[in-house]
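quick one, 490 residues, struct below
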Amino acid sequence: MMKADIGLVGLAVMGQNLVLNMNDHGFTVAVNNRSPQAVRDFLAGPAAGRSTILGAETVEAFVALLERPRKIVLLVKAGQAVDDTIAKLLPHLEAGDLIIDGGNSYWMDSERRAAELGAKGLRFIGSGVSGGEEGARNGPSLMPGGDPAAWPLVRDIFTAVSAKTPQGESCCAWMGKGGSGHFVKMVHNGIEYGDMELIAETYQLMKGILGLDHAAMAATFEEWNRGELESYLIEITAKILAVKDADGSPLVEKILDAAGQKGTGKWTSQNALDAGIPLTLVTEAVFARALSALLDERREASKILPGPDETERRAAGGARPRAELVEDLRHALLAAKIVSYAQGFMLLRETSAEKAWNLDFGSIALTWRGGCIIRSAFLGKIKEAFDRKPDLSSLMIDGYFAKVLADCQGSLRRVVAMTAAAGLPSPALAAALAFYDGYRAAHLPANLLQAQRDWFGAHTFERVDRKRGEFFHHDWIGSGASAVSGTYNA
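---
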């Protein structure tokens, strides 16, 4: 009986496309699904005529089709479905077999699964997979992490099916132990939230202040995609703005302005808060989606709360030529994008150190260079920055990015001021500017915050005229008290 190199459970579109991709690269693949009918439909449909795609309608028959040590990819809904699928497989597996979770799982679930399966003598990989249905079929960005001993078992398959850079490099690399693969994918998705929000705010300014029509906006984004901003998201934005509805009007304007989200951006912000990393831009992007969902409340508030009228909004750009304003938007978007990625890599650095993952940041940038949603030429510059200095504390102080920020920060200031004058919300652009100014500030007003905390809670403070690590309490109200806070902190 023919044996499969690898198996896959979960025949939704992503799973089907990944199976076809693996099979195109010469690998024999066994498939299984919770619903046996999905297996039959796949074999009779997209996989018809492919003798090296093997179907099994039961878990037992599926496992029997696999070469030892067995290698099984799960592409099922994140959460309980992953644990349920693993539980069904376990009675049929043996020591040394490998389970690969390719879904959008939370990284701490992957940490737990790696430990639990390891205790049973099984191997586990939690792999971020980015690129959507198209990527799964033609080459995704892959971010595997987990049991290091498992990686040699699937390295050839992963590198074969992954996306490739224009130079032919594989957009796949081993991340590290435990849940590192899914952590890197989570941060990728958080950065994706930021990129999308920045582009959406730029579109709003083009329309609301510059008065560009959709053809002009599409042409502008298309032109930007030939420069430093070249990316998948800029490319599809240009195409989206050019699409017309059946009545000839722009389709994008028929779409309800209430954004959805699946939670990975929120996870990124929550992890940043836990780690004490100021991931301000991604967090504002998450909140922007949440605010957009308050559709009925916003519509009611629009009738009550005042702001600039249309004439004032259009005047916010001043008397400057439209071409200059468009160039300011381009530079502002580029500067904000640098800030966003800098914050994301700060979170990667902090968690990598805490978990002893030893993440290779240049390799991560290369992995995102193709196949994934945030793929862009810009990521090549990030790889170069970490090649120059692997322990770089922030992308913002790398020579190349510092120069770009110096050239673009004036535009970012003008654009944020313009949005404020026009009454148009730009939370991500404004967050980028605030972080830039905060990060470059030798002094911040946190001294007053510390004084306030010491006044109401005796939390103590450090002094500029004493060495770090010495803490002091001042008797602000003359009570003579000398006690300091032990348990209450704010």
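The CA atoms of residues 461 and 471 lie 5 Å apart.
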